[in-house]
């Protein structure tokens, strides 16, 4: 399989009705219902607010693979990638044949449709579904848990988004993608089940690092006893976490979805062709770790109290009431020596005039200008102007 070649043909299978992160259950339901007959659709149950949660099965192979997305309602990249995958699997090529003959896929897009409706992480009970494995107080958690128990998958793909402030160790680049074979115990033990997930991820990284160099990190593997990925790993499903982070000038993650799709396809091909068996855990652990050495905005050479400093500014992305967009609230997150950091946008304050005050851990509320124009202007956390 040549991932690069497949991505050059992306426009032929990209689901064009999904153009941003704010699509809803009513947007994806027609896409599910119009899938051809080789896709078997099963309603697994309903969310708290009565929205259907559906599984789509495809393939006739012996190796069972379960993929689920949008447990968190505001993490939509995996869902976009799954619908691109549905379209790709309708093509006639050797990669599709390989997966079809060797795998049976069960794909569950949008586990949390109520959260997606208002673009929030949690469900209608205000519970984080991915911290509900033990208690299963949420209908969505119960559905997902039962789906795994019934299907008994050999492999699982847990599809999420992470904050855009994760970076890749040693690169000062955003972690556009992050991978992880979740731990199944506090000791972070490695058994045959977890090892298989690590080997598949090593195969994925080998492919994707060529397309997205210095932008892929290994997520922290701290054990979370309430999480589904950790518990599915424990139950015998080799579980692979994929997280979509940030990428320059891609706020709606339309470029990231391509790399996300490529990650899923690479993993499925590795499983179908069993190429992961030629990998080693050393290659998994060699993937650079995630860290946090980037800001959304950084201003260098700013004079505060007669001292030249850098300031790091980040935003919180908050959903608007209609769930169809967000607003960004900017605050000052660091002041001082930030020479070991980078940012999506970097400004030089040399020769500039500061109007207003800069306060650590407070809403950005100042303007920075040179002799010609305003460079940056914030008012009570709102970005008014930038150049």
Automatic annotation (TrEMBL):
> Keywords for this entry?
Carboxypeptidase, Hydrolase, Protease
User: One GO molecular-function annotation for this sequence?
Assistant: carboxypeptidase activity
* Peptidase M14 domain segment(s): 9-294
Is Disulfide bond one of the keywords UniProt gives this record? no
Signal peptide extent: none
On whether Hydrolase is a keyword of this UniProt record, the answer is yes
Spell out the InterPro entries in the cross-references: Peptidase_M14
Gene3D superfamilies given for it? Zn peptidases (3.40.630.10)
The similarity comment for this entry is:
Belongs to the peptidase M14 family.
Name of the protein in question: M14 family zinc carboxypeptidase
Organism equals Pedobacter ureilyticus
């Amino acid at each position: 399989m040549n991932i690069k070649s497949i991505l050059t043909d992306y426009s032929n299978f990209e689901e064009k009705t999904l153009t941003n992160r704010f699509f809803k259950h009513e947007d994806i339901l027609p896409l599910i219902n119009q899938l051809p007959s080789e896709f078997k659709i099963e309603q697994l149950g309903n969310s708290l607010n009565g929205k259907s949660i559906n599984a789509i099965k495809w393939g006739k192979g012996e190796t069972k693979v379960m993929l689920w997305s949008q447990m968190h309602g505001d993490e939509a990249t995996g869902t976009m990638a799954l619908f691109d995958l549905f379209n790709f699997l309708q093509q006639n090529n050797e990669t599709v044949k390989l997966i079809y003959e060797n795998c049976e896929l069960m794909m569950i897009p949008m586990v949390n449709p109520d959260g997606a409706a208002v673009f929030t992480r949690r469900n209608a009970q205000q519970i984080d579904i991915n911290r509900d494995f033990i208690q299963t107080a949420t209908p969505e958690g119960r559905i997902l848990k039962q789906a795994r128990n019934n299907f008994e998958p050999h492999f699982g793909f847990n599809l999420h988004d992470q904050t855009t402030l994760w970076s890749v160790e040693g690169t000062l680049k955003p972690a556009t993608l992050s991978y992880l074979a979740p731990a199944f115990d506090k000791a972070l033990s490695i058994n045959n089940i977890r090892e298989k997930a690590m080997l598949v991820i090593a195969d994925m990284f080998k492919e994707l690092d060529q397309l997205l160099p210095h932008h892929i990190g290994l997520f922290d593997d701290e054990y979370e006893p309430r999480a589904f990925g950790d518990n599915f790993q424990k139950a015998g499903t080799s579980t692979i976490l994929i997280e979509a982070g940030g990428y320059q000038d891609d706020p709606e993650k339309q470029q990231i979805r391509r790399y996300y799709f490529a990650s899923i396809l690479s993993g499925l091909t590795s499983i179908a062709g069993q190429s992961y068996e030629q990998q080693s855990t050393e290659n998994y652990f060699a993937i650079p770790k995630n860290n946090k050495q980037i800001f959304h905005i950084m201003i260098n050479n700013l004079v505060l109290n007669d001292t030249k400093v850098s300031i790091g500014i980040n935003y919180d992305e908050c959903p608007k009431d209609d769930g169809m967009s967000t607003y960004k609230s900017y605050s000052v997150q660091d002041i001082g020596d930030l020479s070991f950091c980078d940012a999506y946008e970097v400004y030089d304050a040399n020769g500039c005039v500061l109007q207003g005050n800069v306060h650590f851990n407070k809403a950005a509320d100042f303007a920075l200008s040179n002799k010609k124009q305003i460079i940056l202007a914030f008012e009570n956390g709102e970005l008014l102007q930038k150049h």
